[in-house]
Amino acid sequence: MIEAAGLEPGDALASSRELAKRFEVTTPTIREALRRLEATDVIRFRHGSGTYVSGGVNRRLLVNPHVSESRSESVLELLDARIVLEPPVAAAAAAARTDDDLTALTLSADNSLKPQYADERPELHFHVALAGASGNLLLRETIEALLQVRARDQIEIRHRYTDRDRDHADHLRIVEAVRDGDPDAAATLTREHLLAIREAIATTLGPEQAR
Amino acid sequence: MIEAAGLEPGDALASSRELAKRFEVTTPTIREALRRLEATDVIRFRHGSGTYVSGGVNRRLLVNPHVSESRSESVLELLDARIVLEPPVAAAAAAARTDDDLTALTLSADNSLKPQYADERPELHFHVALAGASGNLLLRETIEALLQVRARDQIEIRHRYTDRDRDHADHLRIVEAVRDGDPDAAATLTREHLLAIREAIATTLGPEQAR
DNA sequence: TTCAATAAGTGATTTAGTCACTTCCTGTGA
DNA sequence: TCACAGGAAGTGACTAAATCACTTATTGAA
What we know:
The structure is a homodimer.
Chain A: H1 16-23, H2 27-39, E1 43-46, E2 50-53, E3 61-63, H3 75-96, H4 99-111, H5 126-132, H6 137-146, H7 151-160, H8 164-179, H9 183-205
Helix pairs in contact in A: 1-2, 3-5, 3-8, 3-9, 4-5, 4-8, 5-6, 8-9
The first copy, chain A, binds a DNA duplex through α2.
């Protein structure tokens, strides 16, 4: 029904009572269906207000909200994965970027200095914007999902361990490489950037917490 | 509760009536909670039998089951993404593989010839096993999730467009490179392998369906 | 014009029951 | 002794009719 009506994030759904009538089932049954959609962030409930379409409708990859962080591994595992995956994505971006991508990239690079609301506005997250410049939406969604893994830790890292000015400088150099259409430089700079962050965390955490 | 009890895939949960009693809510409410877990494949219902823990408990990345394929882009987009991401994963595997990884890899390579039940047994999918050999679980999960995107199309492709013998030969050569600990060769062979598949699909589909 | 009270609409949950399906056990007959 | 039809118990699926909790927009008095 969301698809057929072409609903976008922010749009309101009909009330559960009305949906129950429309689909000829009772409200508890409708609720079960809506809860499933809620689990993948396709819709969100706002008590007393209504149910609204959310960002999940056009997000194919997502993090499992039901896997606790205690069950998963260290944050270093995540950075190791990013170090493998993101450099080639940066290279692809350097090869395919449009002018629009460049302006978006510059915008998100500037955002690295300011307090992060990158969680509600993923397009402002530099590494997401970088993946977006590859022109491949699925690539962008993959990086976006990856950045949601251990989200709490990543916010903590941004606030405490990373050197914001150095981050910004790194980002600017990556933007340059992408602007110049230099895939190798973009890949190398991205790798070094992530390696530096990994190093900062590894030494701060100490080897005993590195797992 | 699943965590605390250390339940693994296949284990049964208590009945919804019992859960309702234990959490002091009614069955419809319990059902809503269970439906959310169902949406991310943490549990599965079997009518008349019970509800069971499923593979999702230890899967951090997953495909959104509520995004229709019509809303998403072409299958070529997916292959383009894989061509960017998988070669460096193969390189990481060549650098880090253990002997156990090698046997698992050989096993899954042989599986490329037989009819695919790779959907229920992801560890038998060659590209998943390859990512697993990197030693980074998150990397493996990322590739695993990516291979679930447009799953129907991918099965179709395996059955109709790919040359099974050539696939097998490609896989064996990648295994060799991984065995020899040659990251560059592993990356190059993986890239060529995926490019060949992409080419086969692109020409078969014809440019008009390529989007 | 401002702002507190109100009413209507919405999600959240309950209660009590019925239907549908699966599983396993048991008694019967070969 | 064994195979198997039949039944009972347990489970998920769903209904029905309410009530409670919360939000929002409207209304009317200060």
